[in-house]
Amino acid sequence: MLEAGGTPAVPVLALLLMSLVLSVSCSRSSDNTNGDSNVSVVNSPAAGVVKRILVAEGVRINAGTPIVEITVQSVGPVAAPKPGENAESQAVRSYKAADAEIEAARAEAVRHEAEVARLTPLVASGEASQGQLDGERGLYEQAQRRLQQAQEARRAAEGGLIAARQPGQVQPNRAPPPREETVPAIATSPGVVSVIGVRVGERVSAGQALATVRGGS
Question: Angle CA(192)–CA(188)–CA(128) in degrees, nearest 5?
Fold first, then answer.
């Protein structure tokens, strides 16, 4: 059937309907894309082993909720004994090693603290990702723990040196046992836990993505 101008009416109607369907489809696709911007990543604050997973996928959480616990083990700087070396000489070397470790850890902490300060406004303006900032915060906290352990090692070396200089005191050349500490990986934004990407017992590195959180407040 033709209209007055000779143009088929049905094909025109079909084209209009197709155009409408495509418009709705594009709109939904755009909405899905925008939704992806609400995904935040929970990163490991330090290198270690996953001790516990505190929440399950699909659970709604608030900002600041611990998601995963990481066990960190470390040993302070201790000078290995040399053949024929007495306790006093070893204590002196342990003290010097701890002193050098303190300076290195302090420099590392200052560097990562400056990077956190640089990234914070960039994340707020959208020029850097939250994952980058979380990773740097994790490295800063790790450097702070390294500094604390080095300071404790220096105090222990001081005690060993004093004891070694006392007559009749014999100090065994024994390294201290590893120090274990549990640190949480915390969500930086509210939403629903979308994916847990690690398992208990898995070794992770500082700044590694552990989980994703989807949604907003």
Answer: 115
Q: Which CATH number fits domain 39-73+180-217: 3.30.200.20, 3.40.50.300, 2.40.50.100, 1.10.10.10?
A: 2.40.50.100
CA triplet 116, 182, 201: central angle to 5 degrees? Answer: 105
217 residues of the chain, pLDDT tens digit each? 444 555 455 565 555 555 654 554 444 444 444 445 588 888 888 888 999 999 999 999 988 888 999 988 765 555 555 666 677 777 788 888 888 888 988 998 898 899 989 989 998 898 888 777 877 887 788 788 888 888 888 888 888 778 777 765 554 545 555 567 788 888 888 899 999 999 999 999 888 899 999 975 4
User: Which residues make Cβ contacts (< 8 Å) with residue 96, sequence separation at least 6?
Assistant: 79
Q: Is 19 left (phi over 0), alpha (psi -120 to 50) or beta?
A: alpha
User: What is the strand order of the sheet 48-53 is part of?
Assistant: 179-186, 66-74, 48-53, 203-204
Please, what is the end-to-end C-alpha distance for the chain in angstroms? 57
What is the rounded distance in angstroms from the CA atom of residue 110 to the CA atom of residue 101? 14
pTM for the predicted model, two decimal places: 0.50
